[in-house]
Amino acid sequence: MSNVEAIARPAPEAEAEDPHVNGMAAYDALVAEAEADYAGYWARLAREFVTWKTPFTRSLDDSNAPFFKWFEDGTLNVSYNCLDRNVERGLGNKVAIVFEADDGQVTRVTYSDLLARTCRLANALKARGVRKGDRVVIYMAMSVEGVVAMQACARIGATHSVVFGGFSAQSLRDRIEGAGAVMVITADEQARGGKHLPLKAIVDDAIALGGCESVKDVIVYRRTGGPIDWQPSRDHWMHEETEGQPEVCEPEWVGAEHPLFLLYTSGSTGKPKGVQHSTGGYLLHAALTTKWTFDLKDDDVFWCTADIGWVTGHTYIAYGPLALGATEVVFEGVPSYPDAGRFWQMIQDHQVSVFYTAPTAIRSLIKLAEGDAAVHPARYDLSSLRILGSVGEPINPAAWEWYHRHVGGGRCPIVDTFWQTETGGHMITPLPGATPLVPGSCTLPFPGIAAAIVDETGNDVPHGQGGILVVKKPWPSMIRTIWGEAERFRSSYFPPELKGYYLAGDGAIRDAETRYFTITGRIDDVLNVSGHRMGTMEIESALVACTDLVAEAAVVGRPDDTTGEAICAFVVLKRARPTGDEAKKIATELRNWVGREIGPIAKPKEIRFGDNLPKTRSGKIMRRLLRSLARDEAITQDTSTLENPAVLAQLAEKN
Ligand code: PRX
What we know:
alpha/beta, globular
């Protein structure tokens, strides 16, 4: 069956009244506009979506490729665009954030409140000496205060670097040091799934590990009141810092290229990369994609379930919805607490109309709903929903169908949004009201995004043939550099053989008839576990850092029904290869070790032991073989060049 026949969805126009991009003709017109005058197209949108203090006179500056600049001589402030602008438009009393805590308690924050809270914290940061261009690490759980902290940094021109609250002290330390942060904003603890988990204690540990001398102050939001250690000269309560601060803080007007934030993400080699984003181009794409991809209207209630520690939480919680003056839900907890009906209950309670989540969450909720009718979405009134979104990993057609039918009642288009930390916002995605849907395909490029599929020499491959996903032209919200590593930026994303195209790191294929894209997965050593991005090298480095036990380690991914991919580690110990209970015990020990080194998300699902790893005679680890072993496939590859074929049988054995 061709994809054309598979487009059996009801015309998406039927589901949205007067969509922002109305029908394929409107989509095609936007694409044509961008093709006819690329810089002019983006300049038009940048004037429409962003309020500038000083208007820009130039759109794209590509004179120093790949270090592209957009709207460079314009000045603006992101926090002004997200807060003051809405209050000035008369939305002061509109609810900006509906916050639901882990225990179900709901708090509503209006645009006026959010502006006042942001200004007070911004003034407090200034009082501690934080200046334009300084880096501030934010290590917090989902909270209004987390969003306020990001907005407060933006307000004073400080560059934030949010670190996901699940990362370990070691990972946090690396990111604090990498950014040279002058301040860390954290909370005493986080509440998740009925438990209290430490945050401040991990900040203490991270700083104690050394290398964080740049940090002068730690601001602590009191979330649980749990016991914490305190260094009076360094640590300050957020509520004491903001008390008495004025509710007015003049925004710091910055140039469009000023770094709004850094966000560390995994690559195939080396340590995580500090992806640097701009102010003007980023804000444009955050606002634009939130509006068009979700067809967001003034009376929508938007809910993105991501964490602010990931890029999705930056663009589609902290910035995009607020730039549009929308009402959004921010959720502290987890989808399975107090039971697996939590998401559906919250959609019902808050009348959510646009819901954006990850395939992993959907897959795990499918399993739980199938086992327990009480938490099935059918038990809830989800009629407020209008549009559903998916992000972070491929959504398999079965999960797509379930999401469409049981959550969306067969009415709601699903936007399967492909993008990356580096792209700042959506790159390939359907637009509701325009794009006919095909389950498992992210469909067509966002208007103006020059996505294409090429071979190893940068030449287009024919439709219907798989290849390397690239973006042929710079776009406003693209990564500007890797913080402090310009050369790594150039070589990672703009390899010379690809004609100056941006290399996404994913493989893709386009349907010959529909021209729709399907992402086939990473083409490098990056894994995607539950939508979390991780480098195999990072996990290998963490394992071999256990110098008492581990001699050598190799990590590969294998498909997993729930998490998309699962981490499988092959380990050679410094002692004899363990078997039986001993192997189980050491595997648990190593899993916990990795959890402490990187964070629980990096714990291998499976660890197998061998006397050696399969290597060629020149000593190269044969990862293809390891991938087959991890999948429990019969080895069909040629093993004649293998130095030590006997280890294959050992590594095929599960503990
Ligand atoms: O492999 C692609 C996958 O996630 C990677 C980017 O991960 P990260 O930077 O953490 O950003 C995740 C949130 C945008 C991509 O290189 N990916 C993301 N969205 C999709 C996807 N794979 C398939 N379909 C998607 N919709």
